[in-house]
Structure formats: structure tokens, C-alpha cells
Amino acid sequence: MFALLFLCSCCATVLINSQGTGATVVTLFEDINYGGSTFGVTVNADCVSAPVVAGFNDRTTSIQLPSTNDCVTLWEDRDCQGDSFNVIGSQAFADSMNDRTSSVSPCNYVGPSKQSVKP
Ligand SMILES: [Ca+2]
Description:
Elements: H1 2-10, E1 24-31, E2 35-43, H2 50-53, E3 62-64, E4 71-77, E5 81-88, E6 103-106
Antiparallel strand pairs: 1-2, 1-3, 4-5, 4-6
Calcium ion is lined by residues 58, 76-77, 100, 102.
Organism: Hypsibius exemplaris (Freshwater tardigrade)
Keywords: Signal
Protein name: Beta/gamma crystallin 'Greek key' domain-containing protein
């Protein structure tokens, strides 16, 4: 378990996508104002539940995106289900999704779970 946590914290911002396909590399932070442990996740067109797998489930408090125009959706549950919160650019505090994020998608993600999004 220690080895896994160590791996997560030191390799957090490695760029996974090497094909230049327009992927957004999202950096999740455990604390407010981009502090504490980090976890990097590459978002393409689909839902990504990597935070759950990597032990970063329900830990995200702030988020950094590469560009102020980038937009990702944080989801309460894995597989992009439950409550959601859109982040445009970077967000020093995840507001309603603080310590709740379990998966991430692009803002224009249209999956089977989209119909269950609460207003
Ligand atoms: Ca959650």
C-alpha cells in the first residue's frame, strides 16, 4: 500500500497521452489552492475513473487545467455518474464537489449517465 501511494504522488503529472490528440491533462490536488498530494489524469473524449483506481477517490479539492479554455466535468461517482461539477480553467476550490470526485470527463461528454445529472 505504501508503494502504491508513493507511486501516485511522485508520478502524478506524467503526461500519459503522447499522440497529441487534443487530450486534456488534468491535475487534481488534495488541498485547496493547489496544495498537497497531486494526481494527474488524461481526459480524452470519454469518462475516466482513474482516481478511484489510483487511490485518489474522494480526495480532490482543487484542480488545474492546461488552458483557461479547457473544461472538464468532475463526477461524484465512478463511470461519470451522480452529481457533477464543471471546471473551466483552474479551480482553487472544488466547491460542491470537494472531496467527492470519483471520475472525470470532458464537459461535452455525452454518456448514458448524463440523463441522471441533477440540476
Ligand atoms: Ca465520490
